[in-house]
Amino acid sequence: MSVPTDLASSVRVLAFDIFGTVVDWHGSIVQEMAQLHPEVDGGAFARAWREGYKPAMARVMSGELGWTRIDDLHRMILDDILPRFGLAGLAEAERAHINHVWHRLHPWMDSVEGLTRLKRRYTICTLSNGNIGLLTNMAKSAGLPWDCILSAEVFRAYKPDPATYLGVARVFDLAPGQVMLVAAHHEDLAGARACGLRTAYVERQFEFGTSDPKDVSPQPGNDLHCESLVALADVLGA
Questions:
Q1: pTM over 0.85
Q2: Between the CA of residue 180 and those of 63, 124, 136, what are the distances in Å?
Q3: I need a labelling partner for 47 at 20 to 30 A (CA). Which of 27, 28, 143, 175 fits?
Q4: Care to name a GO molecular-function term for this sequence (predicted)?
């Protein structure tokens, strides 16, 4: 892919969506459930947990719930789905341990190499709905070399609220066009574009598992479309 020189040089900060873009939430949860509760369909469990994510955030954004960290929303969803999988009797300690699987998610195979290369040329940061403690623990566990961890918790707003995207530019005292959002979700990228950020789509065809591949076809509007973070580093000359 040919990238305009002005794009590669004008962008100063790369902000990354995390769940599904940098780390494999589905595969990580399936693996942990196979170890802890092999009788449970780990793929169905992972998808059911993730399906509760947007409705839970919507309760916060509507004002039904006050500001709530993703850790706490994840726990609410977990407690709700456990009976469906025959796990209603789990003790508090095991529920807490399972809930913190989100802190232990594994990176995609290209993530650490890609981020390490991109960090040489750009400031790289998270822009996730995950809370700061979660993202910090994940970075330590997965070896993710962030320059800075930014979160919805910092801005007290969940993506796609403009406060999150514009907040990154404000943190670094940059114009929105000097920030690029990197994500595997077109809705997220559309929100960033509406705020004036540049956007790069990364293909994660198996975000929901190999049995449920995503359509990763290019969509108009994004500045870049790459197969991986290593490919993004190649395109940006990092």
A1: yes
A2: 30, 10, 21
A3: 143
A4: (S)-2-haloacid dehalogenase activity
